[in-house]
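Margin note: ligand = NA7.
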Amino acid sequence: MDEGASTADGTDVDVVIVGAGFAGLYMLHQQRKAGRSAVVLEAASGVGGTWYWNRYPGARCDIESLEYSYSFDDDLQREWEWSERYATQPEILQYLEHVTDRFDLRRDIRFDTRVLAATWDDDATTWTVRTEAGDRISARWVVMATGCLSSAMVPDIEGAATFAGPTYHTGRWPHDGVDFTGLRVGIIGTGSSAIQSIPLIAEQAAELTVFQRTASYTVPAWNAPIDPERVGDVKARYPEFRAANRGMPSAFGSDIGPNDVSAKEVSDEARRAELARRWERGGLPFLGAFNDILLDNRSNELVREFVVDKLHEIVEDPEVAARLTPDQIIGCKRLCVDTGYWQTFNRDHVRLVDLRETPIERITATGIRTAGEEHEVDAIVFATGFDAMTGALLAIDIRGRDGVALRDVWADGPSNLLGLMVAGFPNLFTITGPGSPSVLTNMVVSIEHHVDWITECIGSIEGAGHRTIEATPEGQEAWVGWVNAVADLTLFPGCSSWYLGANVPGKPRQFMPLVGFPPYAEHTAKVAANGYPGFALDGEPVDAPPIDPAASLV
Ligand code: NA7
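Resulting structure:
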Protein backbone atom coordinates (compact mmCIF):
# COMPACT_ATOMS: atom_id res chain seq x y z
CA MET A 1 0.00 0.00 0.00
CA ASP A 2 1.15 3.55 -0.67
CA GLU A 3 1.25 4.55 2.95
CA GLY A 4 3.97 1.95 3.71
CA ALA A 5 4.19 -0.86 6.23
CA SER A 6 1.94 -0.38 9.23
CA THR A 7 1.91 -3.59 11.29
CA ALA A 8 4.33 -5.01 13.82
CA ASP A 9 5.04 -7.72 11.24
CA GLY A 10 6.18 -5.21 8.68
CA THR A 11 3.17 -5.94 6.48
CA ASP A 12 0.81 -3.28 5.18
CA VAL A 13 -2.15 -4.64 7.13
CA ASP A 14 -2.89 -7.67 9.27
CA VAL A 15 -5.74 -8.89 7.10
CA VAL A 16 -6.65 -8.41 3.45
CA ILE A 17 -10.32 -9.14 2.77
CA VAL A 18 -11.42 -9.60 -0.83
CA GLY A 19 -15.02 -8.53 -1.46
CA ALA A 20 -17.41 -6.06 0.21
CA GLY A 21 -20.64 -8.05 0.32
CA PHE A 22 -22.30 -9.40 3.45
CA ALA A 23 -19.17 -11.46 4.21
CA GLY A 24 -16.47 -8.85 3.63
CA LEU A 25 -18.28 -6.12 5.55
CA TYR A 26 -18.81 -8.23 8.65
CA MET A 27 -15.25 -9.59 8.42
CA LEU A 28 -13.87 -6.05 8.45
CA HIS A 29 -16.01 -5.13 11.43
CA GLN A 30 -14.86 -8.19 13.39
CA GLN A 31 -11.17 -7.65 12.59
CA ARG A 32 -11.37 -4.11 13.86
CA LYS A 33 -13.08 -5.29 17.05
CA ALA A 34 -10.28 -7.83 17.50
CA GLY A 35 -7.72 -5.03 17.19
CA ARG A 36 -6.35 -6.05 13.79
CA SER A 37 -5.85 -3.74 10.85
CA ALA A 38 -7.70 -4.77 7.73
CA VAL A 39 -8.49 -3.54 4.25
CA VAL A 40 -11.29 -4.67 1.97
CA LEU A 41 -10.55 -4.79 -1.75
CA GLU A 42 -13.67 -4.59 -3.90
CA ALA A 43 -13.94 -4.70 -7.69
CA ALA A 44 -17.26 -2.81 -7.73
CA SER A 45 -17.75 0.90 -7.07
CA GLY A 46 -19.85 0.23 -4.00
CA VAL A 47 -20.64 -2.28 -1.29
CA GLY A 48 -23.17 -5.08 -1.67
CA GLY A 49 -21.50 -7.93 -3.54
CA THR A 50 -24.22 -9.95 -5.23
CA TRP A 51 -26.72 -7.22 -4.30
CA TYR A 52 -24.59 -4.64 -6.06
CA TRP A 53 -24.57 -6.54 -9.37
CA ASN A 54 -27.93 -8.31 -9.60
CA ARG A 55 -30.19 -5.37 -10.44
CA TYR A 56 -32.45 -7.13 -12.92
CA PRO A 57 -36.22 -6.45 -12.72
CA GLY A 58 -37.80 -8.31 -9.82
CA ALA A 59 -34.49 -9.16 -8.11
CA ARG A 60 -35.22 -9.99 -4.50
CA CYS A 61 -34.09 -12.47 -1.90
CA ASP A 62 -35.86 -15.82 -1.60
CA ILE A 63 -35.35 -15.83 2.18
CA GLU A 64 -37.60 -13.57 4.25
CA SER A 65 -36.10 -10.20 5.09
CA LEU A 66 -36.46 -10.66 8.88
CA GLU A 67 -34.10 -13.63 8.48
CA TYR A 68 -31.87 -12.49 5.62
CA SER A 69 -30.07 -9.87 7.69
CA TYR A 70 -27.21 -9.67 10.19
CA SER A 71 -27.79 -10.87 13.73
CA PHE A 72 -24.49 -9.70 15.22
CA ASP A 73 -25.79 -6.40 16.51
CA ASP A 74 -29.03 -6.35 18.43
CA ASP A 75 -29.64 -2.63 17.98
CA LEU A 76 -29.16 -2.97 14.23
CA GLN A 77 -31.64 -5.83 13.91
CA ARG A 78 -34.22 -4.11 16.06
CA GLU A 79 -33.89 -0.69 14.47
CA TRP A 80 -33.82 -1.57 10.77
CA GLU A 81 -37.27 -1.59 9.15
CA TRP A 82 -37.90 -3.86 6.17
CA SER A 83 -40.80 -2.82 3.96
CA GLU A 84 -41.67 -6.17 2.35
CA ARG A 85 -41.81 -9.79 3.39
CA TYR A 86 -39.07 -10.55 0.84
CA ALA A 87 -36.70 -7.64 0.39
CA THR A 88 -35.97 -6.27 -3.07
CA GLN A 89 -32.42 -5.86 -4.33
CA PRO A 90 -32.53 -2.04 -3.86
CA GLU A 91 -33.66 -2.44 -0.27
CA ILE A 92 -30.98 -5.02 0.59
CA LEU A 93 -28.38 -2.75 -0.98
CA GLN A 94 -29.69 0.17 1.05
CA TYR A 95 -29.44 -2.00 4.17
CA LEU A 96 -25.81 -2.90 3.42
CA GLU A 97 -24.98 0.74 2.79
CA HIS A 98 -26.58 1.59 6.11
CA VAL A 99 -24.49 -1.09 7.86
CA THR A 100 -21.36 0.23 6.15
CA ASP A 101 -21.99 3.73 7.46
CA ARG A 102 -23.32 2.73 10.85
CA PHE A 103 -20.10 0.82 11.61
CA ASP A 104 -17.89 3.32 9.80
CA LEU A 105 -16.55 0.64 7.46
CA ARG A 106 -16.12 2.70 4.29
CA ARG A 107 -12.73 4.17 5.24
CA ASP A 108 -11.13 0.73 5.04
CA ILE A 109 -12.70 -0.34 1.75
CA ARG A 110 -11.00 0.28 -1.56
CA PHE A 111 -13.55 0.31 -4.36
CA ASP A 112 -12.89 -0.22 -8.08
CA THR A 113 -10.04 -2.47 -7.00
CA ARG A 114 -10.03 -5.84 -8.68
CA VAL A 115 -7.70 -8.41 -7.17
CA LEU A 116 -5.72 -10.33 -9.76
CA ALA A 117 -3.36 -12.42 -7.65
CA ALA A 118 -2.41 -13.47 -4.14
CA THR A 119 0.99 -15.03 -3.53
CA TRP A 120 2.31 -16.68 -0.38
CA ASP A 121 5.90 -16.04 0.72
CA ASP A 122 6.91 -18.95 2.91
CA ASP A 123 10.06 -17.27 4.29
CA ALA A 124 8.28 -14.11 5.35
CA THR A 125 5.05 -16.03 6.14
CA THR A 126 3.02 -13.32 4.47
CA TRP A 127 0.70 -12.94 1.52
CA THR A 128 1.09 -10.33 -1.18
CA VAL A 129 -2.11 -9.38 -2.94
CA ARG A 130 -1.84 -7.73 -6.35
CA THR A 131 -4.56 -5.56 -7.85
CA GLU A 132 -5.44 -4.77 -11.45
CA ALA A 133 -4.02 -1.27 -10.98
CA GLY A 134 -0.68 -2.86 -10.06
CA ASP A 135 -0.79 -2.17 -6.30
CA ARG A 136 0.68 -4.76 -3.96
CA ILE A 137 -0.60 -5.16 -0.42
CA SER A 138 1.08 -7.45 2.07
CA ALA A 139 -0.68 -9.11 4.98
CA ARG A 140 -0.33 -12.07 7.31
CA TRP A 141 -3.88 -13.20 6.61
CA VAL A 142 -6.09 -13.23 3.52
CA VAL A 143 -9.81 -13.79 3.65
CA MET A 144 -11.66 -14.48 0.42
CA ALA A 145 -15.16 -13.02 0.76
CA THR A 146 -15.70 -13.26 -2.97
CA GLY A 147 -19.21 -14.73 -2.94
CA CYS A 148 -20.66 -17.93 -4.36
CA LEU A 149 -22.72 -16.45 -7.17
CA SER A 150 -20.55 -13.63 -8.41
CA SER A 151 -18.88 -14.99 -11.51
CA ALA A 152 -21.55 -14.43 -14.19
CA MET A 153 -21.77 -17.03 -16.93
CA VAL A 154 -22.63 -16.02 -20.49
CA PRO A 155 -22.81 -19.14 -22.66
CA ASP A 156 -20.66 -19.33 -25.71
CA ILE A 157 -23.37 -19.39 -28.38
CA GLU A 158 -22.28 -19.17 -31.99
CA GLY A 159 -22.97 -15.83 -33.56
CA ALA A 160 -23.56 -13.98 -30.26
CA ALA A 161 -21.18 -11.22 -31.29
CA THR A 162 -23.15 -10.59 -34.49
CA PHE A 163 -26.39 -9.66 -32.68
CA ALA A 164 -27.27 -6.07 -33.57
CA GLY A 165 -29.27 -5.20 -30.45
CA PRO A 166 -28.33 -4.92 -26.78
CA THR A 167 -27.64 -7.97 -24.61
CA TYR A 168 -27.79 -8.14 -20.82
CA HIS A 169 -26.84 -10.67 -18.14
CA THR A 170 -29.10 -10.65 -15.08
CA GLY A 171 -26.04 -10.68 -12.81
CA ARG A 172 -24.46 -7.62 -14.52
CA TRP A 173 -27.53 -5.45 -14.97
CA PRO A 174 -27.12 -1.76 -15.96
CA HIS A 175 -27.46 0.56 -12.97
CA ASP A 176 -29.88 2.85 -14.77
CA GLY A 177 -32.25 -0.01 -15.49
CA VAL A 178 -33.51 -1.08 -18.90
CA ASP A 179 -36.75 0.01 -20.55
CA PHE A 180 -38.16 -2.81 -22.67
CA THR A 181 -41.33 -0.93 -23.60
CA GLY A 182 -42.48 -1.88 -27.07
CA LEU A 183 -39.53 -4.21 -27.68
CA ARG A 184 -39.36 -7.86 -28.70
CA VAL A 185 -37.28 -9.49 -25.98
CA GLY A 186 -35.69 -12.94 -25.84
CA ILE A 187 -34.61 -14.38 -22.50
CA ILE A 188 -32.37 -17.44 -22.25
CA GLY A 189 -32.61 -19.45 -19.03
CA THR A 190 -35.38 -20.31 -16.58
CA GLY A 191 -33.63 -20.42 -13.18
CA SER A 192 -34.41 -18.12 -10.23
CA SER A 193 -33.24 -14.92 -11.92
CA ALA A 194 -35.37 -15.59 -15.01
CA ILE A 195 -38.39 -16.60 -12.94
CA GLN A 196 -38.20 -13.33 -11.00
CA SER A 197 -37.64 -11.13 -14.03
CA ILE A 198 -39.91 -12.72 -16.67
CA PRO A 199 -43.25 -11.45 -15.22
CA LEU A 200 -41.87 -7.90 -15.04
CA ILE A 201 -40.20 -7.89 -18.43
CA ALA A 202 -43.49 -9.21 -19.86
CA GLU A 203 -45.26 -6.16 -18.41
CA GLN A 204 -43.17 -3.91 -20.66
CA ALA A 205 -42.19 -5.92 -23.70
CA ALA A 206 -44.27 -6.06 -26.87
CA GLU A 207 -43.28 -9.73 -27.22
CA LEU A 208 -41.34 -11.95 -24.86
CA THR A 209 -39.83 -15.25 -25.98
CA VAL A 210 -38.52 -17.50 -23.20
CA PHE A 211 -35.85 -20.01 -24.20
CA GLN A 212 -36.03 -22.87 -21.73
CA ARG A 213 -33.49 -25.69 -21.48
CA THR A 214 -34.62 -27.15 -18.15
CA ALA A 215 -38.04 -26.37 -16.70
CA SER A 216 -37.88 -25.27 -13.04
CA TYR A 217 -40.06 -25.98 -10.04
CA THR A 218 -41.33 -22.87 -8.36
CA VAL A 219 -43.50 -22.08 -5.36
CA PRO A 220 -45.32 -18.80 -4.77
CA ALA A 221 -43.66 -16.12 -2.66
CA TRP A 222 -46.93 -14.40 -1.68
CA ASN A 223 -44.81 -11.35 -1.23
CA ALA A 224 -46.54 -8.38 0.40
CA PRO A 225 -45.81 -5.34 2.54
CA ILE A 226 -44.32 -6.69 5.73
CA ASP A 227 -46.87 -7.49 8.40
CA PRO A 228 -46.27 -5.11 11.36
CA GLU A 229 -47.59 -7.70 13.79
CA ARG A 230 -45.05 -10.25 12.60
CA VAL A 231 -42.27 -7.67 12.82
CA GLY A 232 -43.29 -6.86 16.39
CA ASP A 233 -43.42 -10.52 17.29
CA VAL A 234 -40.00 -11.36 15.79
CA LYS A 235 -38.29 -8.26 17.16
CA ALA A 236 -39.56 -9.03 20.64
CA ARG A 237 -37.72 -12.37 20.51
CA TYR A 238 -35.01 -11.75 17.93
CA PRO A 239 -32.14 -13.61 19.68
CA GLU A 240 -34.31 -16.71 20.21
CA PHE A 241 -35.64 -16.47 16.65
CA ARG A 242 -32.09 -16.38 15.27
CA ALA A 243 -31.03 -19.29 17.47
CA ALA A 244 -34.02 -21.35 16.35
CA ASN A 245 -33.11 -20.68 12.71
CA ARG A 246 -29.51 -21.71 13.32
CA GLY A 247 -30.95 -25.01 14.50
CA MET A 248 -32.73 -25.62 11.19
CA PRO A 249 -31.09 -27.82 8.52
CA SER A 250 -30.80 -24.85 6.16
CA ALA A 251 -30.59 -22.21 8.91
CA PHE A 252 -33.95 -20.58 8.14
CA GLY A 253 -37.68 -21.14 8.44
CA SER A 254 -37.96 -22.08 12.12
CA ASP A 255 -41.40 -20.50 12.47
CA ILE A 256 -42.94 -23.02 10.12
CA GLY A 257 -40.43 -25.71 11.10
CA PRO A 258 -39.52 -29.01 9.54
CA ASN A 259 -42.10 -31.76 9.63
CA ASP A 260 -40.31 -34.82 10.95
CA VAL A 261 -42.29 -37.42 9.05
CA SER A 262 -41.82 -39.21 5.73
CA ALA A 263 -44.01 -38.21 2.79
CA LYS A 264 -44.65 -41.93 2.31
CA GLU A 265 -45.88 -42.54 5.82
CA VAL A 266 -48.91 -40.28 5.76
CA SER A 267 -52.24 -40.70 3.98
CA ASP A 268 -52.73 -39.00 0.61
CA GLU A 269 -55.09 -36.58 2.27
CA ALA A 270 -52.69 -35.66 5.07
CA ARG A 271 -49.84 -35.25 2.61
CA ARG A 272 -51.79 -32.93 0.36
CA ALA A 273 -53.02 -30.95 3.37
CA GLU A 274 -49.45 -30.36 4.59
CA LEU A 275 -48.23 -29.41 1.12
CA ALA A 276 -51.23 -27.11 0.62
CA ARG A 277 -50.56 -25.45 3.98
CA ARG A 278 -46.98 -24.73 2.96
CA TRP A 279 -47.97 -23.69 -0.57
CA GLU A 280 -50.38 -21.15 0.92
CA ARG A 281 -47.67 -19.87 3.23
CA GLY A 282 -45.20 -19.67 0.33
CA GLY A 283 -41.45 -19.78 -0.06
CA LEU A 284 -38.64 -22.28 0.43
CA PRO A 285 -39.97 -23.87 3.68
CA PHE A 286 -42.24 -25.77 1.27
CA LEU A 287 -39.43 -28.33 1.03
CA GLY A 288 -39.57 -28.88 4.79
CA ALA A 289 -43.01 -30.46 4.40
CA PHE A 290 -41.53 -33.94 4.93
CA ASN A 291 -38.22 -35.20 6.23
CA ASP A 292 -37.26 -37.29 3.22
CA ILE A 293 -38.08 -35.12 0.21
CA LEU A 294 -34.41 -34.96 -0.71
CA LEU A 295 -33.57 -38.44 0.54
CA ASP A 296 -36.13 -40.72 -1.05
CA ASN A 297 -37.19 -40.86 -4.68
CA ARG A 298 -40.76 -41.90 -4.01
CA SER A 299 -41.28 -39.14 -1.45
CA ASN A 300 -39.81 -36.66 -3.86
CA GLU A 301 -42.16 -37.87 -6.59
CA LEU A 302 -45.19 -37.42 -4.34
CA VAL A 303 -44.23 -33.79 -3.70
CA ARG A 304 -43.47 -33.24 -7.37
CA GLU A 305 -46.97 -34.44 -8.30
CA PHE A 306 -48.52 -31.82 -6.03
CA VAL A 307 -46.51 -29.00 -7.64
CA VAL A 308 -47.16 -30.22 -11.17
CA ASP A 309 -50.91 -30.30 -10.42
CA LYS A 310 -50.65 -26.66 -9.34
CA LEU A 311 -48.82 -25.81 -12.56
CA HIS A 312 -51.59 -27.40 -14.62
CA GLU A 313 -54.23 -25.46 -12.68
CA ILE A 314 -52.40 -22.19 -13.39
CA VAL A 315 -51.31 -22.53 -17.03
CA GLU A 316 -54.28 -22.49 -19.38
CA ASP A 317 -52.77 -24.03 -22.53
CA PRO A 318 -52.11 -27.73 -21.82
CA GLU A 319 -49.28 -27.88 -24.36
CA VAL A 320 -47.49 -24.97 -22.73
CA ALA A 321 -48.13 -26.51 -19.32
CA ALA A 322 -46.58 -29.78 -20.52
CA ARG A 323 -43.48 -27.97 -21.73
CA LEU A 324 -43.20 -26.06 -18.45
CA THR A 325 -43.40 -29.30 -16.46
CA PRO A 326 -40.05 -30.14 -14.89
CA ASP A 327 -38.94 -33.74 -15.00
CA GLN A 328 -36.11 -33.69 -12.47
CA ILE A 329 -36.05 -34.24 -8.72
CA ILE A 330 -37.70 -31.33 -6.90
CA GLY A 331 -35.21 -29.39 -4.76
CA CYS A 332 -32.22 -30.94 -6.53
CA LYS A 333 -31.71 -27.65 -8.33
CA ARG A 334 -32.52 -24.75 -6.08
CA LEU A 335 -36.28 -24.38 -5.77
CA CYS A 336 -37.49 -21.07 -7.24
CA VAL A 337 -39.82 -18.68 -5.45
CA ASP A 338 -41.99 -16.59 -7.75
CA THR A 339 -44.61 -13.93 -8.15
CA GLY A 340 -46.79 -14.81 -11.12
CA TYR A 341 -44.22 -16.79 -13.14
CA TRP A 342 -46.41 -19.56 -14.56
CA GLN A 343 -49.32 -17.09 -14.91
CA THR A 344 -47.18 -15.05 -17.32
CA PHE A 345 -47.42 -17.84 -19.91
CA ASN A 346 -51.18 -17.21 -20.13
CA ARG A 347 -50.44 -13.86 -21.75
CA ASP A 348 -50.77 -13.72 -25.54
CA HIS A 349 -47.48 -11.96 -26.17
CA VAL A 350 -45.38 -14.46 -24.15
CA ARG A 351 -44.02 -17.51 -25.91
CA LEU A 352 -42.09 -20.52 -24.62
CA VAL A 353 -39.43 -22.23 -26.73
CA ASP A 354 -38.36 -25.64 -25.44
CA LEU A 355 -34.67 -25.95 -26.24
CA ARG A 356 -34.77 -29.67 -25.64
CA GLU A 357 -37.10 -30.03 -28.64
CA THR A 358 -35.50 -27.27 -30.68
CA PRO A 359 -31.98 -26.35 -29.52
CA ILE A 360 -30.41 -22.99 -30.21
CA GLU A 361 -28.41 -23.17 -33.44
CA ARG A 362 -26.98 -19.70 -33.36
CA ILE A 363 -27.61 -16.08 -32.59
CA THR A 364 -28.01 -13.93 -35.69
CA ALA A 365 -27.97 -10.17 -36.20
CA THR A 366 -31.72 -10.06 -35.66
CA GLY A 367 -32.53 -12.84 -33.25
CA ILE A 368 -32.10 -16.38 -32.01
CA ARG A 369 -32.30 -19.30 -34.40
CA THR A 370 -33.49 -22.61 -33.02
CA ALA A 371 -33.83 -25.78 -35.05
CA GLY A 372 -35.75 -24.62 -38.05
CA GLU A 373 -37.02 -21.28 -36.74
CA GLU A 374 -35.77 -17.72 -36.50
CA HIS A 375 -37.07 -15.83 -33.43
CA GLU A 376 -36.64 -12.15 -34.14
CA VAL A 377 -35.84 -10.07 -31.05
CA ASP A 378 -34.65 -6.54 -30.33
CA ALA A 379 -32.84 -7.41 -27.07
CA ILE A 380 -31.49 -10.57 -25.44
CA VAL A 381 -31.38 -11.25 -21.71
CA PHE A 382 -29.01 -13.95 -20.53
CA ALA A 383 -30.42 -15.35 -17.28
CA THR A 384 -27.83 -18.08 -17.53
CA GLY A 385 -26.43 -18.13 -14.01
CA PHE A 386 -22.97 -18.26 -12.55
CA ASP A 387 -19.78 -20.27 -12.30
CA ALA A 388 -20.86 -20.92 -8.73
CA MET A 389 -18.78 -21.32 -5.57
CA THR A 390 -15.37 -21.69 -7.22
CA GLY A 391 -15.63 -19.24 -10.15
CA ALA A 392 -14.73 -16.07 -8.28
CA LEU A 393 -11.94 -17.76 -6.29
CA LEU A 394 -10.30 -19.26 -9.35
CA ALA A 395 -10.57 -16.01 -11.27
CA ILE A 396 -7.75 -14.86 -8.96
CA ASP A 397 -4.29 -16.36 -9.41
CA ILE A 398 -3.86 -17.69 -5.87
CA ARG A 399 -0.46 -19.25 -5.25
CA GLY A 400 0.41 -21.00 -2.04
CA ARG A 401 3.58 -22.68 -0.84
CA ASP A 402 6.20 -23.35 -3.59
CA GLY A 403 4.22 -21.24 -6.05
CA VAL A 404 1.53 -23.91 -6.41
CA ALA A 405 -1.62 -22.49 -8.05
CA LEU A 406 -5.06 -23.08 -6.54
CA ARG A 407 -6.32 -23.45 -10.13
CA ASP A 408 -4.08 -26.52 -10.52
CA VAL A 409 -4.85 -27.96 -7.09
CA TRP A 410 -8.60 -27.69 -7.83
CA ALA A 411 -8.36 -28.79 -11.47
CA ASP A 412 -10.39 -31.92 -10.67
CA GLY A 413 -12.73 -30.18 -8.23
CA PRO A 414 -12.41 -28.23 -4.99
CA SER A 415 -10.80 -29.82 -1.94
CA ASN A 416 -10.31 -28.19 1.44
CA LEU A 417 -10.84 -28.63 5.17
CA LEU A 418 -14.16 -27.50 6.68
CA GLY A 419 -14.79 -25.46 3.54
CA LEU A 420 -12.44 -22.92 5.08
CA MET A 421 -8.78 -23.68 4.31
CA VAL A 422 -6.85 -25.45 1.54
CA ALA A 423 -3.72 -27.56 2.20
CA GLY A 424 -0.65 -25.74 0.92
CA PHE A 425 -2.28 -22.30 1.30
CA PRO A 426 -1.46 -21.17 4.85
CA ASN A 427 -3.39 -18.32 6.46
CA LEU A 428 -5.89 -18.12 3.59
CA PHE A 429 -9.57 -18.52 4.43
CA THR A 430 -12.56 -18.88 2.13
CA ILE A 431 -15.88 -17.65 3.49
CA THR A 432 -18.79 -19.98 2.59
CA GLY A 433 -16.44 -21.96 0.37
CA PRO A 434 -17.21 -25.32 -1.21
CA GLY A 435 -17.23 -28.02 1.46
CA SER A 436 -19.36 -25.89 3.81
CA PRO A 437 -23.17 -25.54 3.98
CA SER A 438 -23.02 -22.17 2.24
CA VAL A 439 -25.51 -21.95 -0.63
CA LEU A 440 -27.81 -24.58 0.89
CA THR A 441 -28.50 -22.24 3.80
CA ASN A 442 -29.53 -18.71 4.61
CA MET A 443 -26.20 -17.23 3.44
CA VAL A 444 -26.13 -14.54 6.11
CA VAL A 445 -26.17 -17.17 8.87
CA SER A 446 -23.37 -19.13 7.21
CA ILE A 447 -21.39 -15.96 6.65
CA GLU A 448 -21.66 -14.84 10.27
CA HIS A 449 -20.69 -18.32 11.41
CA HIS A 450 -17.60 -18.39 9.19
CA VAL A 451 -16.50 -14.87 10.05
CA ASP A 452 -16.77 -15.61 13.78
CA TRP A 453 -14.93 -18.92 13.41
CA ILE A 454 -12.11 -17.34 11.38
CA THR A 455 -11.81 -14.40 13.77
CA GLU A 456 -11.53 -16.73 16.74
CA CYS A 457 -9.07 -18.95 14.87
CA ILE A 458 -6.73 -16.08 14.00
CA GLY A 459 -6.95 -14.84 17.59
CA SER A 460 -6.12 -18.18 19.09
CA ILE A 461 -3.26 -18.91 16.64
CA GLU A 462 -1.70 -15.51 17.25
CA GLY A 463 -2.40 -15.75 20.98
CA ALA A 464 -0.44 -19.01 21.14
CA GLY A 465 2.47 -17.38 19.31
CA HIS A 466 2.09 -19.24 16.03
CA ARG A 467 2.53 -17.59 12.67
CA THR A 468 0.61 -19.95 10.42
CA ILE A 469 -2.29 -22.37 10.27
CA GLU A 470 -3.17 -24.55 7.31
CA ALA A 471 -5.08 -27.70 6.45
CA THR A 472 -3.06 -30.92 6.44
CA PRO A 473 -3.49 -33.09 3.32
CA GLU A 474 -4.85 -35.90 5.54
CA GLY A 475 -7.34 -33.62 7.29
CA GLN A 476 -8.46 -32.29 3.95
CA GLU A 477 -8.84 -35.72 2.38
CA ALA A 478 -11.01 -36.89 5.26
CA TRP A 479 -13.17 -33.77 5.00
CA VAL A 480 -13.73 -34.06 1.25
CA GLY A 481 -14.67 -37.72 1.80
CA TRP A 482 -17.20 -36.63 4.42
CA VAL A 483 -18.78 -33.94 2.23
CA ASN A 484 -19.17 -36.46 -0.60
CA ALA A 485 -20.48 -39.19 1.69
CA VAL A 486 -23.19 -36.84 3.02
CA ALA A 487 -24.14 -35.76 -0.51
CA ASP A 488 -24.40 -39.40 -1.57
CA LEU A 489 -27.02 -40.01 1.10
CA THR A 490 -29.23 -37.45 -0.62
CA LEU A 491 -30.84 -36.99 -4.03
CA PHE A 492 -28.72 -33.88 -4.72
CA PRO A 493 -26.21 -35.59 -7.03
CA GLY A 494 -29.11 -36.71 -9.26
CA CYS A 495 -29.49 -33.66 -11.53
CA SER A 496 -27.29 -31.24 -13.48
CA SER A 497 -27.30 -28.38 -10.99
CA TRP A 498 -24.85 -25.58 -10.40
CA TYR A 499 -24.24 -27.15 -6.97
CA LEU A 500 -22.48 -29.87 -9.00
CA GLY A 501 -20.77 -27.51 -11.40
CA ALA A 502 -22.82 -29.10 -14.17
CA ASN A 503 -23.92 -25.77 -15.67
CA VAL A 504 -20.38 -24.78 -16.67
CA PRO A 505 -18.93 -26.59 -19.68
CA GLY A 506 -15.74 -28.40 -18.68
CA LYS A 507 -16.14 -27.81 -14.94
CA PRO A 508 -15.43 -30.95 -12.87
CA ARG A 509 -18.59 -32.50 -11.45
CA GLN A 510 -18.49 -32.54 -7.69
CA PHE A 511 -21.30 -31.72 -5.29
CA MET A 512 -19.78 -28.65 -3.66
CA PRO A 513 -21.82 -27.62 -0.59
CA LEU A 514 -22.16 -29.70 2.58
CA VAL A 515 -25.72 -30.68 3.47
CA GLY A 516 -26.88 -29.63 6.96
CA PHE A 517 -25.96 -26.51 8.92
CA PRO A 518 -26.40 -27.51 12.61
CA PRO A 519 -24.02 -30.53 12.62
CA TYR A 520 -21.47 -28.50 10.68
CA ALA A 521 -21.62 -25.67 13.22
CA GLU A 522 -21.20 -28.14 16.04
CA HIS A 523 -18.28 -29.91 14.36
CA THR A 524 -16.40 -26.71 13.53
CA ALA A 525 -16.82 -25.57 17.15
CA LYS A 526 -15.34 -28.86 18.37
CA VAL A 527 -12.38 -28.52 16.01
CA ALA A 528 -11.62 -25.08 17.44
CA ALA A 529 -12.15 -26.19 21.04
CA ASN A 530 -9.76 -29.12 20.55
CA GLY A 531 -6.87 -27.06 19.22
CA TYR A 532 -7.53 -27.54 15.46
CA PRO A 533 -6.93 -31.24 14.74
CA GLY A 534 -6.62 -31.77 10.98
CA PHE A 535 -4.66 -28.51 10.70
CA ALA A 536 -0.96 -27.77 10.98
CA LEU A 537 0.41 -24.89 13.04
CA ASP A 538 3.73 -23.45 11.85
CA GLY A 539 3.91 -26.47 9.54
CA GLU A 540 3.54 -29.04 12.37
CA PRO A 541 0.36 -31.16 12.30
CA VAL A 542 -1.66 -30.65 15.48
CA ASP A 543 -1.07 -33.58 17.78
CA ALA A 544 -4.66 -34.35 18.73
CA PRO A 545 -7.00 -37.14 17.66
CA PRO A 546 -9.16 -36.32 14.64
CA ILE A 547 -12.79 -35.47 15.39
CA ASP A 548 -15.36 -37.54 13.54
CA PRO A 549 -17.90 -35.19 11.89
CA ALA A 550 -20.49 -37.99 12.09
CA ALA A 551 -20.46 -37.55 15.87
CA SER A 552 -22.10 -34.14 15.41
CA LEU A 553 -25.00 -35.61 13.50
CA VAL A 554 -26.65 -37.09 16.55
P1 NA7 B 1 -29.37 -20.64 -12.55
O1 NA7 B 1 -30.26 -21.11 -11.50
O2 NA7 B 1 -28.07 -21.33 -12.76
O3 NA7 B 1 -30.20 -20.66 -13.91
C1 NA7 B 1 -29.59 -20.49 -15.15
C2 NA7 B 1 -30.56 -20.85 -16.23
O4 NA7 B 1 -29.93 -20.64 -17.50
C3 NA7 B 1 -30.98 -22.31 -16.21
O5 NA7 B 1 -32.32 -22.39 -16.59
C4 NA7 B 1 -30.05 -22.93 -17.25
O6 NA7 B 1 -30.53 -24.11 -17.80
C5 NA7 B 1 -30.01 -21.83 -18.27
N1 NA7 B 1 -28.85 -21.93 -19.15
C6 NA7 B 1 -27.55 -21.85 -18.81
N2 NA7 B 1 -26.77 -21.97 -19.89
C7 NA7 B 1 -27.61 -22.12 -20.93
C8 NA7 B 1 -27.42 -22.30 -22.32
N3 NA7 B 1 -26.19 -22.37 -22.84
N4 NA7 B 1 -28.50 -22.43 -23.11
C9 NA7 B 1 -29.74 -22.38 -22.57
N5 NA7 B 1 -29.99 -22.21 -21.27
C10 NA7 B 1 -28.93 -22.09 -20.46
O7 NA7 B 1 -29.01 -19.10 -12.38
P2 NA7 B 1 -29.91 -17.94 -11.76
O8 NA7 B 1 -29.18 -16.67 -11.96
O9 NA7 B 1 -31.28 -18.02 -12.26
O10 NA7 B 1 -29.98 -18.28 -10.23
C11 NA7 B 1 -28.79 -18.50 -9.49
C12 NA7 B 1 -29.09 -18.50 -8.03
O11 NA7 B 1 -29.29 -17.15 -7.59
C13 NA7 B 1 -30.33 -19.18 -7.60
O12 NA7 B 1 -30.20 -20.55 -7.48
C14 NA7 B 1 -30.63 -18.54 -6.27
O13 NA7 B 1 -29.80 -19.10 -5.29
C15 NA7 B 1 -30.20 -17.13 -6.49
P3 NA7 B 1 -30.10 -25.54 -17.17
O14 NA7 B 1 -30.88 -25.67 -15.90
O15 NA7 B 1 -28.62 -25.47 -16.91
O16 NA7 B 1 -30.46 -26.53 -18.20
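The longest strand covers residues 136-144.
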